[in-house]
Amino acid sequence: MSFVGFIGLGLMGKPMATRLLKAGYCLVVHNRSPKPVEELVALGALPASSPREVAERSEFVITMLPDNPDVRSVIAGANGVIEGAREGTVVIDMSTVSPYLAQELNAMLAAKSVDFLDAPVSGSTMAAEAGTLTIMVGGRKEAYERALPLFRAMGDKIFYMGGPGMGAYTKLCNQIAVSLNLLAACEALLLAKKAGLDQQKVIEVLSTGAGSSWQLATLGPRMIKRDFRPGFKVQHLRKDLRIVREIAEHLGLPLPGVGLVAELIKSLEQRGHGADGTQSLITLLEELAGMG
Ligand SMILES: NC(=O)c1ccc[n+]([C@@H]2O[C@H](COP(=O)([O-])OP(=O)(O)OC[C@H]3O[C@@H](n4cnc5c(N)ncnc54)[C@H](OP(=O)(O)O)[C@@H]3O)[C@@H](O)[C@H]2O)c1
């Protein structure tokens, strides 16, 4: 079995790494804080003290990190993956980051004959645990084919989207749909409440028809129960929408819906909800409606 490195063991990274361990891969793990490393070592993983060491000991290196600067420093910074990777290593970034960064890292690594795949995921922490993530991949087709068994251990809907950056672009399209569906779910539940309807029943009814969405079906019940624990953090959605807007600006593409939801998510983060789940957007809309 191949040695696989995994860096970034947060809400998503830890269950994804656990799936690889359970599939029989020899896993070398690293994280900024030590606790998730200790938890994975207890399950049979090997600890590494730096991204460089992870790469020195692995044939594949996966990163699952918050934002552009984190991915850049872990892969291309001092003691980074690039310093330990050898010819033939495949570096796979599964974080949601800019396609421009993916293309830049691809070029840097290609100069060392190291492959890079941008392979962001869609699906919740529950999908990460169950190995049912959607994975959208950009990069060299041959590298994608080599990495496919790893993807199959973490997801069951795997798509090759094209050259470097194309997985990252696909994920940004996904985040547009995610954020606007989230806003729609919040507003539908607000009207339901104001009209005196049973909100849970409204979710059930809407979920059978043309207004159904994952956001409404999965996050709606949490909004009603006031369960704002994070599956997907507000600060990460804010980051995703920032990247969407940067890319749209560069492409000269007006995205008015994204502008609206991005400002609401920014406000929600400013109010101290950055580490809460995105379903907490309903609290901001309730306040705007005088229903807080
Ligand atoms: N959560 C979701 O539902 C979801 C779904 C799809 C995609 N995503 C995307 O996946 C990525 C990760 O999301 P997440 O929810 O797993 O985030 P998270 O819970 O914040 O986890 C991020 C992890 O990265 C670690 N980290 C940060 N900087 C590091 C560094 N320099 N070196 C080593 N480790 C570092 C953090 O360590 P600490 O323990 O020190 O904080 C943490 O364990 C994000 O880009 C997000 O947008 C998330």
From TrEMBL:
Similarity field: Belongs to the HIBADH-related family.
Source organism superkingdom: Archaea
Transmembrane segments: none
Organism per entry: Candidatus Terraquivivens tikiterensis
Residue ranges of every copy of the 6-phosphogluconate dehydrogenase NADP-binding domain listed in the record: 4-162
3-hydroxyisobutyrate dehydrogenase-like NAD-binding domain residues: 165-284
GO molecular function: NAD binding; NADP binding; oxidoreductase activity
InterPro entries tied to this protein: 3-OH-isobutyrate_DH-rel_CS, 6-PGluconate_DH-like_C_sf, 6PGD_dom2, 6PGDH_NADP-bd, HIBADH-like_NADP-bd, HIBADH-related, NAD(P)-bd_dom_sf
Protein name: 2-hydroxy-3-oxopropionate reductase
Keywords: NAD, Oxidoreductase
Keyword Glycoprotein appears in the UniProt entry: no
